[in-house]
Structure formats: structure tokens, C-alpha cells
Design a protein that fits this description.
This protein has two domains: 3-82, Rna Polymerase Sigma Factor, Chain: A (Orthogonal Bundle), CATH 1.10.1740; 98-163, Arc Repressor Mutant, subunit A. It has helices at residues 3-28, 31-46, 49-52, 56-76, 78-82, 97-111, 116-127, 132-139, 143-163. Helix content is 76%, strand content 0%. Helix 1 (3-28) packs across helix 4 (56-76), helix 2 crosses helix 4 (56-76) and helix 7 crosses helix 9. With 169 residues, it is an all-alpha fold. It has nine helices and no strands. The chain starts with a helix and ends in a 6-residue tail after the last helix. Residues 13-80, 111-158 form the RNA polymerase sigma-70 region domain. Keywords: DNA-binding, Sigma factor, Transcription, Transcription regulation. One of its GO terms (biological process) is DNA-templated transcription initiation.
Length: 169
């Protein structure tokens, strides 16, 4: 698209977007969906430069027709039929800081029961985010050894948590 089309589209947007949004809002009753309809209509206009060349009245009529069709398509979509709108938002799940502290305390206690090699790779991989390659280079051991220590260390960690009744067997 050339600069003339871009300038025409910008002018059409500036002039018609507010009215187009009000029209879409009246059709949908949903502010966010109305904004999406305006964006989709302008995108389709951007992809149809021949409409821009017809001039301002034709482009405006075309935009409003496209907006109406976008709303109809949305209403007919399977997603729209399956969605249930509710004015009430679900309760936000809140984590109890005491539970988090207890979990951290139990994990720390269980980690101390592991061998130093297993504990080192688990802490560095899962808490510090180091990769197997980084751990291997830093510990001066082959990558396979790091993977093995991670595997057996996690297995020992799970077993220790099971013994405390904190995980499923």
C-alpha cells in the first residue's frame, strides 16, 4: 500500500472510527467487542485499497456494512453460541501466605535429606533456572551425570514427601 492509501486510511479512521465504534456498540452491547469490530473493519479496508480509491462516501458506507457483517459473523460463530456471559466475575483465588511458608519450610527440610550432589543440581536447575549444560560446565561433570543426578534427586525428593504423607503414592 502506498503513502496515499495510508494517508486516506488514516483520514478515514480519524473521521469515522468514533461513529463506527458507537454503531458497533449499539449492535453488540459490548465495549470490547465493539472495539474489535472497528479494528477488523479498518483492517479489511486496509486490505481493500480499491475501496479507498472510490472516495470518502463510498468508503464510509463500506466500513459500516463491513462492521455489521463482522457482528453477524461473530453472533453466528460457534464460540459465541458456547459462551455464557455473566455480569459477575469469578472470585480470584488467593493463596494463603501461611500455606506458602509451610510449603517452603517442608521443601527446605526435605532437600536437606538429599545427598549434596542431588540437592545442588535440583536447587540450581529448578530454583536458579540453570540449564543442564550450564550445570555440567559449572560442576565440571558430563551433562549425562547432571541429568542422572536430577532424575534420582527428584525421585528421592518425591519419596521423602510421600513418607511425610504430602504426595500421592
Amino acid at each position: 500500500m502506498n503513502e496515499t492509501h495510508t494517508a486516506l486510511l488514516q483520514a478515514l479512521h480519524d473521521e469515522h472510527a468514533p461513529a463506527l465504534w458507537r454503531y458497533a456498540l449499539r449492535l453488540t452491547g459490548d465495549d470490547q467487542l465493539a472495539q474489535d469490530v472497528v479494528q477488523e473493519s479498518l483492517l479489511r479496508l486496509w486490505n481493500s485499497p480499491e475501496i479507498l480509491e472510490q472516495g470518502e462516501p463510498a468508503s464510509r458506507a463500506w466500513l459500516f456494512t463491513v462492521a455489521r457483517n463482522v457482528v453477524i459473523d461473530e453472533r453466528r460463530s460457534a464460540r459465541s453460541r458456547r459462551e455464557v456471559r455473566s455480569p459477575d466475575l469469578p472470585d480470584v483465588s488467593r493463596t494463603d501466605p501461611i500455606d506458602s511458608a509451610l510449603d517452603a519450610w517442608v521443601i527446605t527440610d526435605v532437600l536437606t535429606q538429599l545427598t549434596p550432589d542431588h540437592r545442588t543440581v535440583i536447587v540450581r536447575a529448578y530454583y536458579m533456572g540453570q540449564s543442564v549444560a550450564e550445570l555440567a560446565a559449572e560442576l565440571e561433570v558430563p551433562e549425562g551425570t547432571v541429568r542422572s543426578r536430577l532424575f534420582y534427586g527428584l525421585r528421592a525428593l518425591r519419596l521423602a514427601l510421600q513418607e511425610r504423607g504430602l504426595t500421592r503414592r
